[in-house]
Design a protein that fits this description.
Length: 180
Amino acid sequence: RHFRAFALAEGDQVDPEEYLSRVAAAQASDAYEAALSSLDLCARTRRELERSLLARGYVPQAVQAVLDRLEQSALIDDRRYAQRAAEVGANRGVGVYALRRKLRARGVSDEDAEDAVRMLDDAQQAQAAKKAAEGLMRRYAALPAREGRAKLSQALARRGFSWDAVREAVDAAFEEDEWE
């Protein structure tokens, strides 16, 4: 509808920058409302909101203005988003490697992603890996010990845990004296 308000006829001489600026000004309030609606559903990164607004047809100038406004009012903050995602991920049994990949895929900068995963120490990761191993153990309990250990190790590695955390969790799940 915003482009209809500034309809062009064949043969019109148009300065593309000036035209997009006028459309952006007309779209600003609608784009802001769309961003707020999106944030009502769940927290989002700057890049996620940018992709969403561009996909809805808002021009880049309007999108950037909205994102800057949301950042200034602290409604979007990628650093805070990354820290919260790290806390939640640790509680849900997600390893630092998987968490780092997830944050980068959502558009969090490498620096903010590293800061967030740095908050999770080795002891927290080992505990989260053990918790995940307990949940996965039901799948592998009936297997021979060697095969069960291998499959559990692979499953934990896919969840992004370091090999040290995987080894510790697998050793705890398959207590050595029980299988010898």
